[in-house]
Amino acid sequence: MADLKKVYSHEFTSANFPLDEDGRTYHVSTKPGEVANRVVTVGDHYRAFQIAEYFDNVTREDLTIKESGPFKVSNDHIFMYMSKRNFLTITGTYKGVPVSVVAICMGMPMMDFFIRETRHVVKGPMAIIRFGSCGTIKDIETGSIAVATGAFMVSRNYDYFTSENETSPYYISEACSADKELQEILYNNLKHECKNDNIKVVKGLNGSADSFYSSQARYDSNFVDSNENLFKAIKEKHPDCITLEMETFGLFHLAKCVTSTYNKNQEPKSKKVKRISNEIKTAATTMIFANRVNNTFISTEKVPILQEKMIKSILDSLIEINLGDEKVKSKN
Question: How far apart are CA 115 and CA 327, in angstroms?
Fold first, then answer.
């Protein structure tokens, strides 16, 4: 067990954007120089370690950690940091290019912590690819791979369940697009990698829900969720929706809201907005674990096969995208 006195001994300098005395952020707990401009974000810590095995000169022994609490590992070819809130950051190189993988667990708040706090400690443009799992509301076989062209939000309307004035139990937002260039690079790399393995790669709109159960139309006899018509409502507003999960919209949305690239018709009036090079290019790909049409779930033996194909494609895509900081690498 970690030394609790050491874990909670830090002094933070601001209530607005807390940083400790070393410049580490409050949740992800990294500081400048520890996160690369090119990042894979996952929910699963084990998946993060699997991705890191593809980094240059990294062995499985390098990734064998005995500590369960906060820890830091740093040597010539890899950096690892687990925050006390279980954000895991691993930074190394892939084909000579600096890359990080950050495991954030699940849900929109965790995605928000991750994006804002990594953006704060990284200088210059970034490219972020989300790698996770999802369900499909189309007739697509489990074990397929989806690439999100965009994402929208599905949120529980909490007032509906406590007020007589509300008529809709769920709110469905407009869609927010991925970075077209990075999305196409990722899609093409996945198609190339999977072409001989009978793995279907599809692309389309993704819905991100604020819960795994109610906002994805799952039935739970213990609670009133009023979600019997939710799939119908989603399909009516977004006929191109193929997948549901819980994080991608947060990634795409915040990438659109960075100060240097924000382009809504009327610019923000706040005098505090700074025009700096903080662009974020985003894409997302998911393994289809659940088919909500025929109520089937992926067989476990398919998952390692998918992950192997997807990890290579994701890393190749990250080093192919030109961020203006170095020569673009060939996927070969």
Answer: 25
Contact criterion met (CB below 8 Å) for 57 and 77: yes
DSSP at 282 = E
Domain spans of the chain? 4-264+276-320
Give how far Cα 298 sits from Cα of 147, 287, 290, 303, 305, Å: 18, 9, 6, 8, 12
DSSP string, 73-113: EE-SS-EEEE-TT--EEEEEEETTEEEEEEE--SSHHHHHH
Q: Are 258 and 252 in contact (CB under 8 A)?
A: no
pTM, two decimals, is 0.92
Residue 74, phi then psi, degrees to nearest 5:
-145, 125
> Do the bridges between strand 79-82 and strand 88-94 make them parallel or antiparallel, or are there none, so unpaired?
antiparallel
The answer to whether 243 and 208 have CB atoms below 8 angstroms apart is no
At which residue do the structure tokens 């191109």 appear? 240
| Cα(9)–Cα(244) distance, integer angstroms | 40
| Distance in angstroms (rounded) separating the CA atoms of residues 57 and 191 | 27
Rounded CA separation 138/6 (Å) = 50
**Tens of pLDDT, residues 55-109:** 999 998 889 887 777 889 988 899 999 999 999 999 999 999 999 999 999 999 9
Q: Which residue, chain included where needed, has tokens 């994805």? A: 216
User: Phi and psi for 249 in degrees, rounded to 5?
Assistant: -60, -40
In the beta sheet, which residues pair with residue 82? 71, 88
| CA dist 30 → 3, 37, 104, 106 (Å) | 19, 13, 13, 19
pLDDT at 143 over 80: yes
Q: What's the Cα-to-Cα distance from 271 to each of 83, 265, 276, rounded to whole Å?
A: 34, 17, 14
- Integer Cα distance of 41 and 247 in angstroms: 10
The fold of the 4-264+276-320 domain, in CATH, is Rossmann fold (3.40.50)
Kindly report, residue by residue over 269-304, the tens digit of the pLDDT: 454 544 458 999 999 999 999 999 999 999 999 999
Q: How far apart are CA 282 and CA 28, in angstroms?
A: 19
